[in-house]
Amino acid sequence: xxxxxxxxxxxxxxxxxxxxxxxxxxxxxxxxxxxxxxxxxxxxxxxxxxxxxxxxxxxxxxxxxxxxxxxxxxxxxxxxxxxxxxxxxxxxxxxxxxxxxxxxxxxxxxxxxxxxxxxxxxxxxxxxxxxxxxxxxxxxxxxxxxxxxxxxxxxxxxxxxxxxxxxxxxxxxxxxxxxxxxxxxxxxxxxxxxxxxxxxxxx
Length: 203
Fold this sequence. Notes:
Elements: H1 19-32, H2 38-50, H3 55-62, H4 66-72, H5 80-84, H6 92-104, H7 106-115, H8 121-146, H9 154-157, H10 161-202
Helix pairs in contact: 3-4, 6-7, 6-8
């Protein structure tokens, strides 16, 4: 460009960087050009952390917050299935939320990612809400099956006091009648004994 412009000399600043510093320079340049993928940043941050740098120092060198660096650190232990689908996520936040949801619903999130493209943070949030609602409905249904409710009608819970009195009265009548029968039998037995005694006496 300088030659095309007709310059024979240009001013330049030469700097010497070690490997770690060079990495920050390259990341910064790519970020300025707006062609840096979130997973490229994540891989770089994880590499610097693995090299022994503290997250606070990484954040300072990148000109960002420690919480943002921590967000990118999710890449380190993310499932391979999600890493393989990295181009489907539009930002690190969407990827982070997908990893967290995968911990609770691995099969469901795997199916969701397979069927969707350009996944955003709101997509993951809506999907989490849907799964939570489904789980709540299932748990409620299971609870009703395990603890069915029964309604006790008045016929089962109340008894007619009159019938109880009648039953009691009936019992007393029956007992009286039986007692009377016993008395009658005893009298008859005594009469028979007396008759036998009189017969022997007359003899």
